């Protein structure tokens, strides 16, 4: 059974969903062993704690410290890293260490509406402002270039003429809840 760490900075709706999906009696190939946040007051930490998952807070300076983070990941025996709304840049040593075993979710159909500064509502606002007729989610491997790692999965949803960014956010969140844990499970199935 592989051990998953989720890195998240915000509300943690994805983290909670992934924990609920994997941490059951049923063997789904992995368990969430750790949730890491750079924000001590992030809601994701409370959600994880309430579900009995260990949490750690790392500062941006600590994140750059290979020995510190490497030691933390080893102490929890982490095999796979999931980025779910994690707003700090992941340092190269960590990407190398989890090469092919670190995934990110982005709330648009990459390569559209990706890149630096594009996260959360900003993405949905840009999508609506551009008059797009559809949007969706992208799950991709993490590489050193922002939002450019190999795409593992995409799902789309329609945008109606009068949809506000909040409506688009809700539709995208439904896709995230439905697909993200399953894509992680599929990735792990193909691993060693
Ligand atoms: C999610 O919609 C995720 O796709 C997005 O942040 C949100 C986190 O929500 N990620 C990005 O925008 C990455 N560039 P959550 O904390 O409720 O899971």
Mean pLDDT: 96
Question: What is the helix fraction of residues, given as a range?
Answer: 25-40%
Termini separation: 11 Å
Helical stretch count? Answer: 7
How would a crystallographer describe the biggest sheet?
Answer: 7 strands, mixed
User: Helix- and strand-based class?
Assistant: alpha/beta
Q: Name the helix and strand elements from N-terminus to C-terminus, one letter apiece.
A: EHEHEHHEHEHEEH
Determine the strand fraction and express it as a percent band: 15-25%
Write up what this structure looks like.
The chain is an alpha/beta fold and 192 residues long. The protein has seven helices and seven strands; from the N terminus they run βαβαβααβαβαββα. It starts with a strand and ends with a helix. The site of glycinamide ribonucleotide (GAR) has 18 residues, from α1 and β5. The site of glycinamide ribonucleotide has 18 residues, from α1 and β5.
């Amino acid at each position: 059974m592989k051990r998953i760490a989720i890195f998240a900075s915000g509300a943690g709706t994805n983290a909670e969903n992934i924990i609920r999906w994997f941490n059951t009696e049923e063997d789904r190939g992995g368990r969430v062993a750790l949730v890491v946040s750079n924000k001590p007051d992030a809601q994701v930490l409370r959600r994880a704690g309430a579900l009995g998952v260990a949490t750690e807070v790392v500062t941006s300076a600590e994140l750059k410290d290979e020995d510190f983070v490497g030691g933390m990941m080893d102490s929890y025996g982490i095999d796979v890293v999931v980025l779910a709304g994690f707003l700090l840049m992941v340092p190269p040593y960590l990407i190398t260490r989890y090469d092919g075993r670190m995934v990110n979710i982005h709330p648009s159909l990459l390569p559209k509406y990706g890149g630096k500064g594009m996260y959360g509502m900003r993405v949905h606002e840009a999508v609506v402002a551009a008059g797009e007729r559809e949007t969706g989610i992208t799950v991709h491997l993490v590489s050193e270039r922002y939002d450019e790692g190999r795409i593992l999965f995409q799902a789309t949803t329609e945008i109606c003429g009068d949809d506000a960014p909040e409506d688009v956010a809700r539709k995208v969140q439904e896709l995230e809840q439905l697909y993200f844990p399953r894509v992680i499970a599929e990735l792990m199935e193909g691993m060693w």
